[in-house]
Amino acid sequence: MALSTFFTEPFYSLADFDRLFDEAFNARTSAVGPRQPGNLNSGDAVSRPLRPRLDLHEDQEKNLVTATFELPGLSKENVQIDVRDNVLTVSGESTISSERDDKGYSVRERRFGKFSRSLPLPQGIKPEEIKASMENGVLAVTFPRTTPEQAPKKITISQLSGRIHIYGDTTDQFIDALLPCSTPYVWDGTSVHNAFKAYAVKPGKKRSVCDNLVSGLSALVKPFPAKTRPNFINTFGKPAFDFPFDALMNEHHRTAPDISVSFPGRSLGDSPSWEHISTVIESKRKARQDPFVLDGWARTKAIEQLAKNARNLMFAHGLLAAFVVGIYGDTVRLIRFDRTCALISVPFNIKNGGPRLLQKFFWHFTHPLVGKTVAGADPTVMELSSADQGWVKSELRRARVLHWQAHVAEISQGRRVEVYDEKTGRCVPYLLYQALNVNGRLFSRATMIWRAIEDTRIWKDGRLIPDPSRTTPVKPQIMKEYWRQLARIAEAKFYQRLNERIEQEDQYGLATMVCGGDLGEFALRQWNNARRHQRETEPSKPEPPSSSLSSLSSTASPLASNIASAEGYVPGTDFPLLHPQHQTCSWRLASGEDDWHRERSLVRMVIDDVGRPLTEFRSTYELVCALRDAIRGHQQAWQKARVMHRDVSVGNIMIVDEPQENKYTGFLHDYDFSVMDPDLDETYDETPPPSSPSSSSLSCGSSGGKPAKLAPERIGTYYFFACELLRVDYPGIVRRIDHDLESFYWVLLWVVTRHTDHGHPYGVLLCQRIFKFGNDDDSVDAKKGWVYRRASTLNISRNKPLSHLLARFNRLVIRHLPRPSGFVVAPLDYEPVLEVFDEAIAMTGWPMNDWRPCAVPIACAVEPKDEGIPVGVATCPLPGETAATARQLAGNGRHVPSKLPPLPARSKLPAPIACPARPEVYLGSSSKKRSSTVMEEEVLGSRGTAWTAQHILGDRSKRLKTNEGAASPMA
After folding, report:
1. Own/partner pairs for 842-846, CB < 8 Å, 24+ apart?
2. What is the pLDDT of residue 287?
3. What are the Cα distances from residue 369, in Å, to 366, 376, 519, 527, 557?
């Protein structure tokens, strides 16, 4: 049996169809009468032509696919296995003969003939990776399920190095600036000086080393008041901790910290979880294993572990920033992670000065200036008490919410949050009881989607009770939380535009925002007010706290008045912080004001519509209706509000859970990447604008500063890009409405090829053949090849209306695609597209309950459970940025400002409600820096991994949109 790479036949053989016809004929004739001798359909194993059957089995754990071919009577010498153009072909020649006597007649039967079966392979499989064995007429061929290029890449130092900064000339400066505390720390100089005397690194004795560290750390915090004293336990060698949310644990990394630390005044049991842990400590045997020095950059594992721990802490508790500790031999580092980058302290020795610095760190950590728990905690977030949980369950029961018991299965992991409403200027309390989706990236928007209800209870006798005046139960809604880049318009402003321009009763196919806004901007305004107040008040005559400050600064947080005895310790102001809590400042601290646009701001918003992902349709009729309604919503958003969505994808179209009569079945949401015309008059002109405008005339960023280039047009979810946007050799392409309409075609095709019995010869591999990732030319060629040549081969079994829709829509796309000369016959427009949908919906013959789970025997670039996750497009990175950062860390000339650089003036940030007044995009930095930074999104996947492709990574940074998964109306 030989393995060569020179010949292939078509992807499927006509023998398959012959076999099916023969079997059908045999089934019919078997009931008519006895089979006649010599009949080819008699089932005789010798006389029947050989048509090998093929079975495929996928082992995800071993990353293997096994193809089994039935070749009765053949030996391995008769079989040839060929590989060419990524297609495996099994062929051979049969020379089987038999001889027998039958009632005096000598019967001799011989069979000579050739056979062939072909199978597409995953992209990138090499011939030497294919293994074959044959025994008893069964040929087994195994090959990898995914190649290393397709598989998720673990976090590499190149993806973190540009976001790692050493801050502070001393560790004291790091602690004082990043962990301001409510009560000043005092070092007595004697009691814990020898706390780590027993600490000694011994090869192969890490458990005992961690035990010694725990003893020393416990001695450091022993003088703390009991209510603020943390508890340390050795968790080295214990089972890794699951992701904080049980329902999503299979989609995210498990981590195993060496030492776990409790919240102040609490203890940790023998089996702690992230729910009970406030911070962690990682240790290594040698000082040269410190990953933050020049020769440590190759040790990515250490930084990966720190980053994953910080990520899990932030998600588990809704932290604004997470602090972790790294101990490398006698060297100690303090690290602060937020949603933009990490700040690292200078190293210090654990025995020589280390006890004082570690004790000071944990004192500041457990005595935060804002909040009640630890430094980095969000004062607008609280745990759900047992009373809160009981009230949520009673409201869902009263509202008769479908499957509400399942929704509250993990209610203990929920939380109470304040949602800032820009329209009313007030904060609305919501109880979050089920996490639907989590974008597991650390340095990103970190989108979280929750089921939530408004907390309508009232205070009476010092506790919350149900409002007796409220007779109807609270309606479940969807709460979305994410960290917006300052250079982008907050998504809430797009919803405000839609609500302002489209009457509520006229809105169709669009998600409705109940309340929401940019909490970071709100905090910034309060912070600026406090700074003004501080400047206007003489230090010798402190004024009482400003009454204008919201609960953000008054949430039982110890302020200056609580520490008046510590003269000069903190400024005498009602908001004595170096920076607003809900807007990051790490880049400005590390690099100065010029990098303000890299910062992020926390946004929360509540959406009224509750729905299911598009991939969970009950019938294809419901699927098509939902898509039709989303197109109508897209039309309304553009023609009435001049909002262009720019990210039509599987995850951004939802099916209404409980549709009402004469209401839409599906709706469009997620305006993170949208743009809007800032010149829209207050009175809407009934004449609709042209259906294919350019987004070059629309606003897509914050105002303020110098004019910059427009944002790149390649934005959105890669798999659903219009073909024209994939052609980088087409100069001057700008985003138009017809590009979004083409994306609806690819969304429909994606769902149909993955979740229906479409009957195409490629079977479950059809989606992989149409949607390519990683190379623009391959992607556009595959899409155009489908539209022009192969779309006619798709005829959905027993579903004439859907087949009709696909054929009609495909013809519109053919006329829409640009010719080589750039000429377009007929750009896609709303009316023709809606007409083909309405025509198909009106047809009879729609099947019921025809949804099918996605079963891909050979992995595509995207796992079935990750459908709709965008996988990256971006502009060029800043030249030498990574190398420059590495040199900065390695050198002695660290740039650490003596004080926080001034925040940008309000003119440089988006206004709370008003849209930018001019179509140009203004930023307080160069256009080159802005274009590379605004489009910058970390590519760490939901498991802390990165979906990558060599063609993109080779010369471009990646742009990743984070609607992680499609488990809710907002992703």
Report:
1. 843/800, 843/801, 843/804, 844/801, 845/799, 845/800, 845/801, 846/619, 846/620, 846/621, 846/799, 846/801, 846/802
2. 86
3. 10, 10, 19, 14, 6
Residue 601, burial from CB neighbour count under 10 angstroms (0-12, 13-18, 19+):
buried
Domains of the chain are 2-144 (2.60.40.790), 153-377 (no CATH), 380-485+513-607 (no CATH)
Q: At what angle do helices 620-641 and 737-755 cross, to 10 degrees?
A: 170
* Residue 435 buriedness (CB in 10 A; 0-12 / 13-18 / 19+): buried
Residues in the chain: 971
Pairing of strands 342-344, 348-349: unpaired
- Give dist(CA 391, CA 387) in Å, integer: 6
Burial of 766 (0-12, 13-18, 19+ CB in 10 A): buried
**Helical H segments across 760-871, by residue range:** 766-770, 776-785, 800-816, 830-841
The DSSP code for 878 is P
Q: What is the pLDDT of residues 841-888, one digit of tens each?
A: 999 999 999 998 876 543 333 333 333 333 322 222 222 222 222 323
The backbone region for 830, taken as left when phi is positive above 0, alpha when psi lies in -120 to 50, beta otherwise, is alpha
Q: What is the pLDDT of residues 479-529, one digit of tens each?
A: 999 999 888 888 888 988 998 899 888 889 998 899 999 999 888 888 888
Euclidean distance between CA atoms 101 and 605, whole angstroms: 85
Tokens of 915: 């849209």
Find tokens 């169709």 and name the residue. 508
CA separation for the pair 548, 124 (Å, rounded):
61
Within 10 A of 667 (CB to CB), how many other CB atoms are there?
Answer: 26
Residue 868 CB neighbours (<10 A): 25
- Evaluate whether 237 touches 191 at the Cβ level (below 8 Å): no
Q: What is d(CA 918, CA 698) in angstroms, rounded to the nearest whole number? A: 9
Contact at 8 Å (CB) between 122 and 145? Answer: yes
Q: Considering the entire predicted model, what is its pTM?
A: 0.66
Residue 337 · residue 172 · CB < 8 Å: no
**Residue 38 φ then ψ, to 5°:** 85, -10
The token pair that represents 703 in the structure block = 């105002």
Average per-residue pLDDT in the chain? Answer: 73
Question: Which structure tokens are listed for 23?
Answer: 């079997």
